[in-house]
Write a structure and sequence with these properties.
The protein is α/β, with parallel strands linked by helices. The protein is built from eleven helices and 13 strands. The structure holds pyridoxal-5'-phosphate.
Amino acid sequence: MAIEFSERIGRIPVYPAAGGYAREDLVKLASNESPFAPLPAVREAVEAALGSLNRYPDPTSSALRARLANRYGVPALRIAIGNGSCDILLAAGEALLEPGAELVYAWPSFSVYPHLSAASGARAITVPLDERECHDLPAMLREITVATRLAIVCNPNNPTSTAVAFAEIEGFLDEVPPHVCVILDEAYCDFNVLDDPDATLELLPRHPNLVLLRTFSKVHGLCGLRVGFALCGSEELPRALDQVRQPFFCNALAQAAATEALAHEDAVIDRVTRTIAERISMDERLQALGLQVAESQANFCWVKLGQEREEQQILAGLAERGVLVRGGTALGSEVPAMRVTYGLPQENERFLQALAELL
Ligand SMILES: Cc1ncc(COP(=O)(O)O)c(C=O)c1O
């Protein structure tokens, strides 16, 4: 007799993880990671925490939350910490959704969102992106009903790299009814030059239903440790998120690293500037190869390969040349496409050379 699984296991999509963990010599442009190693001071903070690993971590991440409260001007009780921001997303699904409830998000967008409805039995309503591959917020608004519990806006959007301007987000929130929790997933906001990355903070006091979801995985380069956070418009959501999760969900090394990372904003700004310089040059060179590139506000680009090209062939050709990128169709594209993280200059060069050979 085979093991019998719950009915929802058949519904929950398997996360399309990137490969390439076994080899060292690869150019890894597939997971929107930072190409920069952790800062020396962050490494030292992690090393200093190693001696206490016989103890459970601080269950309330109090030092990290205090520093976040200070940095963002949001009361500590309105801040949730997570084992990566994915952990917060999944916990929000568990806390808010159930059969009969509805969840609204754009598509293509972050591949974890479909998991929330599948796991809870709620109905997912996906709204196509507009012709610029941006969120269509008016269309999303039209889908919100009394049954909606959660709306997610990914800004800048993964995988299409595009962003909507602050004024549009502000207008959207003014129209969303207060019973609907809105998660603004800002994993890539530091790379967005349309607005100040912290512009949305001013919306929190006006919208108790708003959650700004952030992560240490991208600009802080700490995805190997898994730590993210949510700045919330009310205290109820962080409390509910903690109710549905195991205790001690954020490990001690992650807490130490993230707390230290917040003291080094200048280094973060320097890394953003370097990434944006790569963005400008790489997008130009991709366009010079005759490819269509979305207007990126993130640390990655979204490239249409053209109907006549075989996406799989190009991905395999790049992999043979030691370069890993993500195929677009696995991320929701209806046409051949790829998502490429901006790496270090020499990594981008290797990618562009390999791609030019293949085209
Ligand atoms: C839009 C978006 N949100 C959230 C995450 C989750 O990041 P983490 O769980 O590493 O904080 C990612 C990761 O790629 C992402 O692209």
